[in-house]
Amino acid sequence: MNKYRLSPSCDYVALFKSTPIDFFSPEKRRPLQRLRFGRRPQRGVVEINDGKLDFEIHLRARNSVVPPGDLAFAQQVLAQVAEMDSAARELPQRLGMDHEEYLAYITIAPPKVVLRYCAAAFNTEWSAHFVPGKSGRYQLVRLG
Q1: Which of 49, 51, 97, 99 has the fewest CB atoms in 10 Å of its CB?
Q2: Dihedrals phi, psi of 17, to nearest 5 degrees
Q3: Burial 117-129 (b: 16+ CB within 10 A, else e)
């Protein structure tokens, strides 16, 4: 079993609510970085640390403000994030691939959610894309 799995017993919503949002803007980059990476929108970033594992939540932002609906959406996602993490790991595990992957960050852009993983065993990364289903539970639509 992968030691980097998220814990179903952790209250990620409470951790999210109690952590301040840091804002990162492309205007703060040096000119060469802007040329290399292009224009990117401002992001709000929340670092979640449950004492054992940590990951980031990336949110849309404008003028250092995250839309209130996005904050509520993030809380809905975090209420299910351990289930989503398990679903994202299921297919690679069935194929016998356990590269000690860990959740690096989650990009939230309603209604889509992308969990981004990096491997600890070697240099690789991938993502798991989710959308809300009819029941309100998030469904894995693809790995990429």
Answers
A1: 51
A2: -65, -30
A3: bbbeeeeeeebbb
Q: What are the residue ranges of helices labelled H in 38-133?
A: 68-94
Per-residue pLDDT tens digits of the chain, which is 144 residues long: 578 889 998 999 999 999 999 988 755 544 544 444 455 678 899 999 998 899 999 999 988 899 999 999 999 999 999 999 999 988 767 767 767 789 999 999 999 999 999 987 778 888 999 999 999 899 999 988
Amino acid at 121: A
How many CB atoms within 10 Å of residue 78? Answer: 24
Tokens of 59: 């949110």
Is residue 44 within 8 Å of 59, Cβ to Cβ?
yes
